[in-house]
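As the next step, I wrote out a protein sequence along with its fold in C-alpha cell form, included below for the reader:
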Amino acid sequence: MNKNLLVVALMAGAMLLTGCASKKDLQNCQTENQRLSSEYQDAKETIAANNARIKSLEEQLAAANSHADALQSSLDKSLTNANSSNVNIEKLVDQINESNQYIRHLVEVKSKSDSLNLVLTNNLTRSLSKDEMKEVNVQVLKGVVYISLADNMLFQTASYEVNDRAKETLGKIAKIINDYKDYEVLVEGNTDNVPVSQDSPKMKNIRNNWDLSALRASSIVQYLQTNFGVDPKRMTAGGRGEYNPLVSNDTEVGRQRNRRTQIIITPKLDQFMELIDKAPEENKK
C-alpha cells in the first residue's frame, strides 16, 4: 500500500477513536484519498507502457544484431572467395608466363635447328658441281634436309647396284653427313609405276617396285658405310615403291623424276625431343 494512503488511514482511524474528527476533515481525507488513488493508477499505467516499449526495443535490437551477424558472415565469405580468386588468378598468370617462356624456348630451338640445316645445305650445294646440281635437288622442309638424286646417276640400268659415276657425288654427301654427327640419315628409294621386268638376270629375284626401291636404298646405305665410313647406326634404309610420286607417271619425263633416291638428313629424334622437353635454365630452382 502507498505510504501516504497508510498515513491517511491511520489519521482517520485516530479521529474516529478519539471522536475529535469533524465531518469536514473526513471529506478532506476522502478527497485526498481519491487523488492519491488516481495518481497511483496513472503511475501503474505509465510503468506498463514503459515495459512494453522496453520489450519492443529489445526485440528490435535482437533483430538488428541478427542482421549484423548475417552481414558479417556474408562479408567473411566474400573475402574468402576474393582471396581464393586472387590465388587462382596468380596461378593462371604464372602458367601463362611459363607457357610464354616455353614457346620462346621452342622458337629458339627451331631457330637453332633451321640455322644448322641452312649451314648444312649451303655446305653441300657449294661442294656440288654444276653438272651434279642438275641431277641433285637439295631442299629444307620443316627443319629436315632432303637430298634427291636421280636414279640414273646412282645405279646401273635395270639394277640396284651403285655405278661408278655415283662415287664422287656420294662422297661429297658422306662428308656432310660425317661432319654433322648429331644428325640421322634416312635413305629412301622411290620408283615409277612401271612394273619390274625380270628379263635382266640382275632383276630375276625382284618381285615388284617395293623390292626394287628397298634394295636401292639398302645399296646406298651400304655404299656410304663401306666406302666413306658413315656410322651404320645413324642410317636407315627404306623403300616406298611407286607410292610417293613427285609428279604424274603419264609421261616419260614424269616417270624419270619419280625414279629417285632421297637422302633425308634430320636431327636425332631423341636428342631433339630432349632439347624441347628440357626446362629453361632460369626456371630451375
User: Anything to note?
Assistant: Confidence is low (pLDDT under 50) at residues 278-285. The CA atoms of residues 63 and 253 lie 98 Å apart. The chain is about 60% helix and 10% strand. The two ends are 91 Å apart (CA to CA).
